[in-house]
Amino acid sequence: MSAANKSGRASQEFVWAEAAAKYIFRKTKLRPKIALVLGSGLGAFADEFTRSVKIPYAKIPHFPRSTAIGHAGQLVIGSVDGVPVVGMQGRVHLYEGYSVREVSFPVRVFARMGVKAIVLTNAAGGIKREFTQGRLVLISDHINLQGVNPLSGPNEERFGPRFPDMSAAYDKEFRASALAEGKRRGIDLGEGVYAALAGPSYETPAEIRYLRSIGADLVGMSTVPEVISARHCGMRVLGISCVTNAAAGVLDQPLDHKEVLETAERVKDQFMGLLRGIIPKIANALK
Ligand code: HPA
Q1: What CATH number belongs to 3-285?
Q2: pTM to 2 decimals?
């Protein structure tokens, strides 16, 4: 593709994000400043939004459709204790065959909607030994091993700068609030570094030993493209992993997607309680 065509693609994506945002605004009067991406088995939180409007991804112009099991594939706009929010019930992943730009497109739509903060949740494997099955962990930083970056190609300045800073990608104030909320609820939240791989095969034990040696505490197949795009657009980010399994080779047992979904289901109430407690704090921090 020529450079001119590529820069055309960057501006086209901006136009698409505008079109998607406009479509969503026609469906609701709410104007949320907070977005939530609800990962594998965690989508049920959006069913608790009040006065909610649900929009299947397939209906939103240019929006990617989700195919993963455990993902409903719809946008839910509603309120949590009076705070307007937009939630993604399920995300799309690189391993489904989507490009990294498609994966992060919804974040850019949220930016065009005026969203200022995003809470990204996921299911992850626990590399650090204390991150056992069912543990909820705040992401303090990440390592991008997906081999792609959503900002590759000509930069669209209307989204953000060419070289966005990533030295404080996971908002310190949000993490402190989340830790305090966890404490209040008797949830022992961990904090750790999330390594993102492309998947869909789970890691080998040798890969997990490698990831541990480079400083990763959690491993998964999502979130990082969305975080990069969110930071590019100037959004503040909170990332929370649900450790659904010990990473490969940590325990002497094979990994299974069913186990991932079952664990997410088991800690769902705790996770949802935590999110409910955090949202008003984020709303306050944005004032
Ligand atoms: N590895 C990668 N992604 C995951 C895992 C894992 O062990 N568990 C849940 N998502």
Answers
A1: 3.40.50.1580
A2: 0.94
